[in-house]
Specification:
Layout (H helix, E strand, L loop, with lengths): L1 H7 L31 H10 L1
Length: 50
């Protein structure tokens, strides 16, 4: 089974264009427990105010 698939790999076309304005996403990874993002500019402002 894998031997047949290995023979087909060189025949797979990789000639495609990506749209520079598109946002490409993947559902392979799902991170549900990540902390909320903090704006880096806000971090810099707070650093100098404290």
């Amino acid at each position: 089974m894998f031997e047949e698939a290995d023979k087909e790999i060189p025949n797979i076309s990789t000639l495609y264009e990506k749209d520079p304005d598109a946002i490409y996403t993947s559902r392979v990874f799902a991170f549900n427990d990540l902390q909320k993002l903090i704006n880096s500019l806000m971090k810099k402002v707070l650093k100098y105010c404290i």
